[in-house]
Structures are given as C-alpha cells and as structure tokens.
Amino acid sequence: MKGPEMNPSRRRVLAGSALALAPALLPAPALAAGPKRDVAVLGGGMSGLAVAQELVERGFNVSVYERKALGGKARSLPVPGTGTGGRLPLPGEHGFRFFPGFYRHVTDTMRRIPFPGNAGGVRDNLVDISAGRLSRSGGRADLGVPDLKGGGGIDVDWLRETFTGLLQQVTALPAAEIGFFVNRYIVYVTSSEDRRYGQWENVSWWNFIRAEGKSAEYQAIVAKFLTRGLVAVKEEVASTRTVGNMGQAFLLSAAGLGTDGDAGLARMLNAPTNEAWIDPWTRHLRELGVNFHLGQTVEALDVKNGRIDAARTVDAAGKRHRIDADWFVCAVPPNRAVDLWSREVLAHAPELEGTRHLHTDWMNGIQFYLRETPRGLGELLSFMDSPWQLTAILQSSIWNRDFTRDYGDGNVADCLSLDISDWDAPGILYGRPAKQCSPAEVAKECWAQMKAHLEDTGASVLPDGVLHSWFLDPAITWHPGLGRNTNDEPLTVNTIGTWTRRPRARTGIPNLFVAGDYVQTNTDLATMESANESARAAANALLEAADSPAAPAETWKLYQPPELDALKKLDAQRYKAGRPHLFDV
Known about the structure:
31% of the residues lie in helices and 18% in strands. The protein is of the alpha+beta class. The protein has three domains: 37-68 and 295-358 and 500-545, FAD/NAD(P)-binding domain; 75-130 and 265-272 and 363-487; 150-255 and 560-576, no CATH class. Strand 21 (476-479) and strand 22 form a beta hairpin. Pfam families: Amino_oxidase, NAD_binding_8.
C-alpha cells in the first residue's frame, strides 16, 4: 500500500531527526509545542465550506470567516415580508442551479452530509431532470427534449451521428453548416491535451466554430446558445478549451459516461438550496467543530518572515479584528482576492499577480411567483432566441414541496426561476441591456421575452393574471442617479489565454492556499464543481505542508473516452511537429 507512512517526505525525515536530537539542542519549552492545527478559511461560499469539511474531518481546528452568508452564490434566501399564516417566506435565490451528471466532487461531499431519512445524505435530495423545453420565438414550434440517459461505448461515428441528430432536432440549420460544426466538434474531442492547452486555449469559441459569415441561426444556436445559455460565457471571448471540455462532458454524461454512478444528464435539488443542502451542511460542520464568523470582511493579509502572520477583517459595525492561525485558505472570489494581494504578498507569491487579469461577468436570477402552475412547460426551459439568454426551471416539477401550503401568503402555487445570462444585450421592451434597467423593468423585460417564446404561435401559456409577484437577486443594486445596476456577486468567466494566469491551490507562501472556481482545476469552469475541486486541492496542499498523516481528499478528472486515445496520440505527434489537426480542413 502506498501512503504517507510508506513514503515519508524529506520534510518529515528531517523533522523526525530534529525531534530525536531535540533534547540536546533545544530548550525544554520548545518541545511542548504541539502540531500546527489552526486553519482560518477566508470565505464561506462553496469552496470555503468544502475545504472546511475536508480539513475538520482530518483533525484540524477550522474557523470560517464570511462577509455575507454561508453558501455564497449557491444559497437560497427568504424574500422579506412574504410569509404569513405560519408559512415560510417565499424562497428566492441568486439563480437556479443544476448539477450536471459529470459532477463528482460536489456529490461526493453531499454524500457525507447527513440528512434525515436519506441513506445517501444530502446527495439523495438530487433528482434527475427528465424533460426540458427548447423554446423558439418568431412563430416556430418549441421542442421537447426527452431523457437522454444511455450507456455503452463511444466512437467517432457515434459522436458524429449523435451530435448531428441533436442539432437537427434543435433547429433548422442549413445542412452544410450542420456538417461544418459537427466537423469542428470532432476536431476538438479528438485533439490532444497539448493542442487543447497550447492552441485551443488561445482561440475564442466564435473563431473556432468560424461563426463569422454564417447564418443567423448558426450564430444564435451554435455560437450563443451553447455558450451564454449553457455555461454563461460570451462566445467572442470564451476559451475554446473551456467550452469544448464542457460540451464533451455534457454529451458524455447524457450517454451515461463519466458520471458518479446513477446520474443522468443533469439533476436538481428537490427543495430550496438552503433547506436541501446548505443548512444541513453548515449544521453538520458545526457538529464537527467548525467555527463560523459571519459579517467578517477580509481586508488584508499580514506577511512576516515569508509567511502569513495574520489576516485582518472588519465587521458590519466597522470594528476591525485580527485573525491568528497556523494556516490560511483564501476562499473569496477573484475580484475580492486581488485586494488582498499586497506588494508583500506578491513578493513571496508572484504567481498570484495573474489574478488581476481574470474576468468576471454577470449571471443572476429572478423568480416569478405564480398563482397557478402553467401546463406543458416541462422542467428545464431554454428561451433560445431571447436577447438576455434566459433559462428557467419550473420548481413545482422538481421540488417535493407544496407552495401554497408551505410558502408565502397562501396564494402562490409555483415559481418560475430564471437565470439571466446576458446583461449587455438590448431587450425587446425598452431597448436597453439589463444592466441599465431598474428592477421593475428587468422583471417586465424577462416576462415579455418569455411570452415572446411561449406564446408566439397563439397559445396562452403565461397570462399576465397568473403572476403573483417577483424577486430579483439582491446582489443586483439599482442606482437611479446613474441609470445602471451594480452587481455584488459577479461570476468568474474563462476568457481566452487566461489558464496560465489562474493560480494553483498552493502558493509561494508556505501557509497560504487558494480555493475558488477561478483556481486551476480539471473542471475548468466557474461552477460549484470547480469550487469544490479547488477546495480539495487546497486541503491536500495544506495536508502536505503540515506533514499530516491523513489521507488526501479524493479528486477526479473529466472522463475521456478511451476509444479516442489513438486519434489523440496521433494529434499529439502532429501538434509537436507544428502541423494542424488531421480533421481541421
């Protein structure tokens, strides 16, 4: 068996020798010092909670410092003043979230969070999305998407047939353009890792699929929908490597490959996120001994003798605090982490400078509370031609809750939860982007864009009278005097050429580690999965630095079909020789 005891690190050997000689060399008080076990986790979002769990399970004393609310962008939150008659407030959220079948790290963590009545813990609160609706505007019929679960092997011909058939169902693209895109897709999935990192990382998705000059349908579906609608990145600047990896992972999980067992294409929680996941998680962490300090905004990291000596925070009352610990894990988003990278920090960890060159964008949600459940919408909806790239979940089809009984004032039967993925495109009502619309205008615009898709063939799907109320993510703040919104919780996006600028979990400062969806991970997309994977990488780096005998946290790579290995090996040779991909014609 291979493990820490069988393969001691050089540091451990030296440490053991020093301890053996200590009685003769060191004063007695020095021998009383115990192992360094105190960890300060700066940030209580997905990565912060995940690293806290990995470390507290391995015997560390963990304290988490969070400025806002535990769970970060994944949390749900009560809509103030909406619960009456003993019912809970209406559930709001930053935006609905789903769990693709290829998620492994998040679901592994969920299994280790107890939940009453669930043998598999919180993981058992995930349910498969079995149906969806791809809605088109302009008088075109909408398309229903069946359950795509499958199994078995895979080869290039299977990929070609499956992807071509999917595109033919989605839209009436010109046949030549379908064939062209399928060829581009085959080029990517048979590209070697060297080419993916060396070439496709530095090419935008728009240029890779050569969208310029193609039909409006090609640009709307293949370019925009597959980026903004699915992974919330802009096609003109998104890295082809990121979009290609996610496209491959989605397709493979639809075929039952590369999942955590019984997962399908995607899953959803069966209740509001805090009820089904975040609250049981934080309760479990408290029982394990994690200390949470809310309302603490990290302001600075003090460096002394090449290590982090302390972190400094300020609370909601403006009082400043000093945080002392042996180890520090920075788990705040990149737009906030850069404020902590002082000259002293960068002098010892210059690789963190690249964080300043990363990009964020907006993907925030709005919930529409309905007096009755619309018929025939399915579970997951995509409004493919909407200027704001809207996607939605009809929550009654997923949740095991009775809205009228459990939430609000007794008059809400359902919730249509939307994600707005494009805040920069002009809308259809006011001609302005969402960033320049008041909350009421955002709501009216989203409602109009949905109706333009669902009712463009004459059917009445969302009559105005069905709307009870709405709730916009409170991270969005409207400034009337400026005529624009600000966003307190933007999303990291992977733009071309930024892989090498993203930090790894281990830094040049021995007791400082970084976790977050912007850290280099195999998942490589700003998601809960990437945040969790980065947390495990940070925990493992800390374990090694602390010479801990504990087993490292398990990590997984995205599934790569072995049937494509021969083509990838050939491409690696061609790339090394400076030649294009064999199918790149």
